Amino acid sequence: MKYLTQLFLSLFLLGGLTASLSAAVQDQPFEKVAENIWVIHGPLEMPNVDNQGFMNNPGVVLTSEGAVIIDPGSSLQSGEMVLRMLKDVTDKPVVAVFNTHIHGDHWLGNQAIKAVWPDAPVYGHTEMLAMIKDGAGDTWVELMDKLTEGATKGTRVVGPDHALNHGDTIKVGNKTFRIHHYGQAHTRTDLMIEVVEDGVIFLGDNVTTNRIPRMVDGNFTGNINSVDRILEINAATWVPGHGKTGDVAIVKVFRGYLTAVYASAKQAFDADMDSSDVKPIALKATVAYKDWALYDEEIGPQGAQAYMEVEAAEF
Ligand SMILES: [Zn+2]
User: Fold this and answer.
1) Segment 49-73 mean pLDDT
2) Same domain, yes or no, for 131 and 207?
3) 16 domain residue, yes or no
């Protein structure tokens, strides 16, 4: 009995210890999406206690110089998981990192990469660097900590240290990364990254699959425009910010969602209806998307947001 009590006591102490250290994010393997390009397709939900904040699509492009990481996740712990999984892909060094936009689920993992590869440049849009200077990174660190009830503890703001703009190209070894930015779309900071030699495009959250993205920092017409511009490229492989990688069809399907919500708002506006009247119209127009993650929460607010945009466009 005495031993049993001791056993329970030590198990209890051990449990308390691991909990206070913030457990490692569960391993999720890289999937090959093209020759020398892999993606971890994260879960579709919001950051929460179960996923420990990890829910985006980190990518790796293997160049002749080393690995280029795109969007290493939402926290120190997510970035560490990405580095663990990278070992299954390559033992080459990490030589560069790209961040697709300001939303913290995509880039707070920079910290883990920089801790191991301090010389690797981290690229982000000019506006993203400006927003982090103004404190946006701290807001994201706090939000992640809150949503995961402390699972991301220890995460610090390590933002991009190299600013990019539309049309820039970065050469890393044998690969060319061409930057596309068409103004405010999902946010004001979006980079779409074309891996020229491979016909692969990392879309950030300008396109998502099976999951409705947050639009509060974005703009429907801007997002539609930026999707139309990127569709001018004849790429083979399209990597969304959330959801599965696919061919050009995934981009067109997502464009269909944006245009359906905007058209619903326009219809309500033209009929002298209110912003709150958009939802029933949008529910019908977007029925094909009803099973997408976050649809139930987002369709009402996004219809109302699109209405405000229609209204602003009319004046
Ligand atoms: Zn986003």
Assistant:
1) 97
2) yes
3) no
